[in-house]
Amino acid sequence: MPAHNPASELAAFVDSHFGHRGLVPEAVIAESWYRSVTQHRLDPSVHPTDNMLSAAEIRQLQAQHQAYLTLASQGVSGLARRVADAGFAVLLSDAAGVTLDARLPADAGHFTGSGLVVGARWDESIAGTNGIGTALASQQALTIHRQEHFLASNARLSCSVSPIFDSHNHLLGCLNATCLYNDGPKQAQHLTLQLVTLYARLIENAHFRQRYRDCLTLAVKPCDGDADLAAEQLLALDEGGRIVGANRAAFNSNPHALLGLRIEQVLSADIDQLLALTQGGARGTQLYDACQVTGLEVGLRVPRAYRPCASTAPAASANAHPTLDQLAGGDPQLQHAVTRLRKVLDKDIALLLSGETGTGKEAFARALHQASARSARPFVALNCAAIPEALIESELFGYRPGSFTGADRKGMKGKLEQANGGTLFLDEIGDMPADLQTRLLRVLAERELVALGAATPVRLDIQVISATHQDLTARIATHQFREDLYYRLCGMRITLPALRERSDRAHVIEGLLARLAPGLHLSASAHAALLAYSWPGNIRQLLNALRQGAALAEGGCIELADLPAELQLGQVEPSRTICATPQLGQQVEEAEADHLLTLLRRTQWNMSAAAQAAGISRSTLYRKIRRHGIVQPNRQGH
Ligand SMILES: Nc1ncnc2c1ncn2[C@@H]1O[C@H](COP(=O)(O)OP(=O)(O)OP(=O)(O)O)[C@@H](O)[C@H]1O
What we know:
Rossmann fold; nucleotide-binding; 21 strands; 5 domains; transcription regulation; alpha/beta; transcription; ATP-binding; Sigma-54-dependent Fis family transcriptional regulator
């Protein structure tokens, strides 16, 4: 078994495994084998020992996924009834590859002996190439037949698996049908895979209907007689006709940024036209407009208990994390950056995001994670400026039980370990203390972590995304930041433009307002003030201004007077004006320190609450606290 091997040696290893059996692996399977060797460092002949959860962990996980389990249960039973006679077990997993439900056929003993039980971990990092783990990693339906399994101990299984997605296109888990000792060719599993995929779609559609039972929903399918009934698209709309949820078929036909689009951007009819075509949408009925809208059969469902989605869905979508396309908006510089980022996603390249506070660095990191093959794995953020220096080490690297006096009895997993398999976002990386820079560099280079007090290292497979508002090259020049760590973190660097530099400011303002408060609009003077302001706090500040405007607005329109005072004062850029006169600058500094101190006292030194009250991020608050030399009373002298 090759370890640390060059690509050609690895390819030869995989080829020889399949070649001996006269097989040619599909690309998705070969890639999974490469991952099993290079990322997960597994050995085909070694069966994992940590592949089962304890009974208590299983109970906890099932309770956590209660809604999903209940919803999927009928689909799992239906599939099991259809395939049990043919000797198949049916399993349902969560998005991390742990089986939550298992329906076994008559000779159950063989199946349980093969790990086909509730609480088994089929994640690729544990079991290598296998049906559930590889369907989750590749986000596609597939069959892993016998010797295609990475671990020799799984080579008796033939598994046909489909991922299951929620109405925001995020993975919920997998549906799997497995048979044992099937000597037939893989092609014989084709119909099984089709059946599993069909049931996965049924579960997704049930999830969609349940979630949007009180909302306007649209069912769309071509009028064409050859159209596939199982490919019916389902869309949930808010009151203004904006898409707030969809099923897999809809995401497949509109892969980019479906959520948040207006229905007229997808169909050639807006919400009013649809309601008119379906005679106003009588309550509790499902009305069809056959073939009048772009050759599509469109059914609008107006539930009996209809309450406009505006009361729930927009709030949810306003809080939902923006996608990469939504973040790029209409700005050519950002769109170009997103195109480049998509190309390097999943290529094991560390990314460094720079930009002023509030430009969306963390939002970008989250969107990159969501767009990557790691989206079902954890996204873990560590703000290096927001925690005291002394705590960064244990936060990042963790510790084992009893490793130092005062340590938590149970030990603590550090952020690096928590992020294993997923993405670690290191915010304000420029503030990382020097000695920890050295330790981080070693961990990233060796891809192994030894937690404080631990005897053995943990293998790490993480995508690292860092962010900074500082000029790291200047910090390198003054020896405050390690140059070698910089190059390790900066496989590719993207600079996010300040809001005042963005050419699509009007688009950003409208987009945010539509998400925050659908139906509200801006008066001409409010719109002009928002466009002309210099936004030192960037999108975060704009969001706060729009929130205030929406809260104060009357009659559906945000007036200039509803916006924060600085916007009404004219279009000055506060920081530049202040710096022009040192004395005034000094006064403003003092006023800011007083203001922050008041907020900190009022919130009893709760940093998140104080930052929110000040309309700045926690890291900016920490920076300001340090700059003004503010010290919490009971921390004095430490
Ligand atoms: N293009 C965008 N569209 C919608 N919301 C956005 C966009 N960019 C940022 N946001 C939102 O603005 C807020 C600030 O963004 P974020 O925290 O990512 O900024 P940041 O650059 O990481 O800030 P800081 O450097 O202060 O930590 C968040 O609520 C984020 O969801």
